[in-house]
Design brief:
This protein is mainly α and 250 residues long. The longest helix has 60 residues. It is elongated, with a radius of gyration of 43 Å.
Amino acid sequence: MAAAGGEPSAPSASDDLFQNFYTEVKQIEKRDSVLTSKQQIDRLLRPGSSYFNLNPFEVLQIDPEATDTELKKRFRALSILVHPDKNQDDPDRAQKAFEAVDKAYKLLLEPEQKKRAVDVISAGREYTEHMMKEKKKQLKKDGKPVFVEEDDPEMFRQAVYKQTMKLFAELEIKRKEREAKDMHERKRAREEEIETAEKAKRDREWQKNFEETRDGRVDSWRTFQSKGKKKEKKNRSFLKPPKVKMEQRE
């Protein structure tokens, strides 16, 4: 960055810290890149791997700024290393490790997914730097030495790593919650659709039965009415007025 008057400004403490962090990460990548097949499988399937492996760059042990050519080269090397055919003494675990590598590679081939992963990593670093500034501000306010443990490059790297993993985990939890909610909504909509279809079917069957039995009901009513009239006529024929007795006078 250039200062006023066009003079280049001296690197800030934050820039130096990040450069040290970047150098440390490259050293770790170089060290881990020579792990044996078994070590790579153990790394990819270690406890908590379901969350560690959410970071595709962590899975492939490659820098976020790596080119597509470097990404492809790294994928081929690592996939061969953990492939089940190369690890026939432990094919099941090798298959799971291979799937983790393949998933990470395919994710990084999609520009949007790659950008999302890079953004998460950047957010983890920025949050860590922000917390360092806040801690130092409080120390200065308290009149204490302005030094935090993250000033040490290794501690800074660990802090960024932890924060990045936390962000990836939070995003994954939210994704699963959305997925569960969507699934519930789809299930509810399907149940309502089935209930509506069944009700419509019942209504159609009732209407059909009603139409088919209409003539029978009309005939039954007419027969009932006819019998009623005949019975009434028959009863009337037997009704005779009472005889009136004449009184006799003495």
